[in-house]
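Collaborator request log, item 7. Partner lab (contact: R.S.) asked for a structural prediction of Helix-turn-helix domain-containing protein to inform their binding assays.
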Amino acid sequence: MHRALGPRAVLRPGPEPAHRRAPRGRPLIDADALRVLHRAARVLLDDLPQLTDRLLCLLQEQEPAYRAALESDTPGTWQEVHRSLRHSVSSLLDPRGAREAARHCTWRIGATRAEQGLPLDALLHAFRLGGSLVWQDLVDETSRCAPEDVRLLVHVASDVWDFVDEHCTLVADAYRQTEQRLAWRRENRVRLLAGALLDGTSRIADLPETAAALGLPEHGRYVVVAVAGEAGSRDAELGPATRAHWHAGPEVDHCIVLAPDGDTPAGVEPRNAPGVRTGVSSAVDGLAAVGDARRLADVALSLCPGTGGTVRLTDHLPEALVVSCPELGTALADRVLGPLAELDGADAEVLVDTLATWLACEGSAQRASRRLYCHRNTVLNRLRRFEQLTGRRLARPTDLVEVGLALAARRLMPR
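Returned to partner:
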């Protein structure tokens, strides 16, 4: 840690003439101040191990972060402080020659301490404390050997503290840049781990790291929420107490949600913004199965109307079966509803709409007639006509299942 003096023009002594003549254009008092400074700095350089020990004692007393650093790596911390002080005191004697080495040392300390997680406030305090200690030792040494020269140090005091400020700024810049780089790496690693989990390509050996990175337990019940729409995934907010991890995609965002203990997916309540489509998967056990949940969430999303809303897979399993295999869904629709193609388009739509409404009303012709604004007998006549054209009997359970799936395929499959 560079605690000392800066490479300013006033500190560029050059060779000292025997008669101590001031450099051309410089006051004599500056040359005398540099002479006093250099004499004290040489003594500090010889006593550098003791200076290092004293600074570490102060840090241990005043900075808990450095107490922990000393406990974990005493030799390494001592060497770091010693190296920093050596560069700092050397800068008093040869500011021009020692400048780059001192800056490089400070930068490396800032980067290393950021990687280790030492708080920046503690690091800056250490630099300022070191600067104070060096300055005090310069004054004490001059007072001891030549008390009459202490007043001359005033003329280099501003340069000393400018140097300390410069290196505090430098170490803070190194710390912040390293911190930003580490944060980017962490975010990218989290994204890769979450992406592999959702894709179903995550390795079993990576699950503990993935759980730690996402802040979710490895074992638990999970649902995945798939969100699409201009408003973006964050508008489909979850409950405030929900533990979840969002993963942004180019078109669809996914959220891995830890379902409360014993809860069903109904416990996950997305709040959609207008125009946002949301699909919620059924629950799966453990992070290892999140890839399956994501595929189910995408199926639920495909069932969501274009105007927006939320579709829970568990509430739409028949439709999910149809869209999960489009080829079979299309084949079923053609097989069951194909005979209606011989009718006029409007006539066929009336029969299909009547059948769908009757199914939505749980087989009640009376309720269906109220929705369709027609007589109950009209509904029954249309249903009988459908049976005649398709050869299906709506009273037969197997036929009714096929008809319901065929209608779902017709509604959901692109035509």
